């Protein structure tokens, strides 16, 4: 709780002095993540539910609602104006109307599920990652995509709702052909080389 409060205070202070993103966050277990950075303008609700790996970049003006659990693996880049949510109440509110706030027990239509974003994935600007989304490793989520459900490793996703429109390994294979010295670095996280 104290760590969460300190991080929120630190982001507010940095926001007041400029939108400069600085290195150094902490994992949920307290480990220092020296290469991870979260922009001070990013809003994180339920920060105790955010599980963050190192080498993560979270840009400006994002909203991360982590009360249901958000796991962000190593090397993930989240650009700007991205929303990641772990619950949705709009169906339940429509069904219950004014009784939503007074309703006891399970709320019909209420969705709450964790989100997982796999290693070295890229989340484009103005994207929405919905409750229960499981994004594989090496994925590219294009700008303005609305992601729900499972996304396979190395997929390129676009649209509302997002659909697979390509595979990042096509471009990665060309880049690695031009720079073969980088193959061990790629294989270290991907577990394979693109063909």
Write the SSE topology.
Layout: H1 2-17, E1 25-26, E2 32-33, E3 37-38, E4 43-45, E5 50-52, E6 57-58, E7 63-65, E8 70-72, E9 77-78, E10 83-84, E11 87-88, H2 90-96, E12 111-112, E13 115-117, E14 122-123, E15 128-129, E16 134-135, E17 140-141, E18 146-147, E19 150-151, E20 155-158, E21 163-167, H3 168-178, H4 183-190
Parallel strand pairs: 3-6, 4-7, 5-8, 6-9, 7-10, 8-13, 9-14, 10-15, 13-16, 14-17, 15-18, 16-19, 17-20
Antiparallel strand pairs: 1-2, 11-12, 20-21
Biggest sheet details: 7 strands, mixed
Share of residues in helices: 10-25%
Report the mean per-residue pLDDT as an integer: 91
Strand content: 25-35%
Count of DSSP helices? 4
Structural class: alpha/beta
Task: Give helix and strand order, one letter per element, not per position.
Answer: HEEEEEEEEEEEHEEEEEEEEEEHH
Shape: globular
Per DSSP E runs of 2 or more residues, the count of β-strands stands at 21
Give the radius of gyration: 18 Å
Strand order of the largest sheet: 3-6-9-14-17-20-21
Low-confidence runs: none
N- to C-terminal separation? 47 Å
Plain-language structure description:
- The chain is α/β, with parallel strands linked by helices and 195 residues long.
- The chain has four helices and 21 strands.
- The protein has helices at residues 2-17, 90-96, 168-178, 183-190; strands spanning 25-26, 32-33, 37-38, 43-45, 50-52, 57-58, 63-65, 70-72, 77-78, 83-84, 87-88, 111-112, 115-117, 122-123, 128-129, 134-135, 140-141, 146-147, 150-151, 155-158, 163-167.
- The strands form five sheets. A seven-stranded mixed beta sheet has the order 3-6-9-14-17-20-21.
- The chain is globular, with a radius of gyration of 18 Å.
- The N and C termini lie far apart (47 Å).
- 26% of the residues are buried.
